[in-house]
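Annual report, structural modelling task.

Input specification for the manganese (II) ion complex:
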Amino acid sequence: MAQEKMITRRNALKLGVGTAVLGTSGVTQAQDKAAKTPFNVDQIYIPIAGSNQQFPVRRIYCIGRNYAAHAREMGSDPTREPPFFFQKPTDAIQLVPPNQVINHPYPTLTKNYHYEVELVAALNKGGKNIPVDKALEHIFGYALGLDMTRRDLQRFMGDQKKPWEIGKSFDYSAPIGPIFTVAKIGHFTKGNIELSVNGVVKQKADLSQMIWSVAEQIAKLSEANELFPGDIIYSGTPENVGPVVKGDVIRCSIDKLPDLVVKII
Ligand code: MN
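The model returned the following structure:
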């Protein structure tokens, strides 16, 4: 289909994503870097909706099992467990512009590839031990994201008490839409979150059903690590995660945000 495209960090430059940003000295950051490093490393950016500016991604945090019914389907008791987090590399970002169907490659090594629709919070302020009642002040904006998962590998490694990173952290495992600023769209403490595959609704819940709110996630994360501008947080998925195969079309929705759509190829 003509409108289908694949946007990756490798061709992002052609689309004007990740172009040079003016540094404080008046020269571009790219020029600064060229002077100080033996080679260039791409900075990953996410488009900011309604702006020609880009959000530079520093780290991708994800919370696990943050909706009670999803925690139960993953085999844990949501009432007794503190939150836990993992990371994906920034290279996992796959940019998904709104109102387009973007091709998403079925990854290697798995036979059970799962979707997880999530609200993503993007920070423009960092800190340590951030109190819950100050946490939302650290959020620049929000996006719709998918925490794509090699479920078979995640489970296999977990069963062996090994790190399940290979199930979560891999190329293209973090499709994400543009970031909508808090100034424009406000905060997301409630509202419908939904995912369908080939037009059939699979996941449907309300953001208010999170066990740990986004503010609480920021507070908890900042106890473990100093947070920084550019950090983004995938805030967890509701119940009824499941597999996709090549040819499937995943549509994600959160109230107030444009849908995110990918086709598995
Ligand atoms: Mn997740």
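DSSP finds seven helices and 18 strands in the chain.
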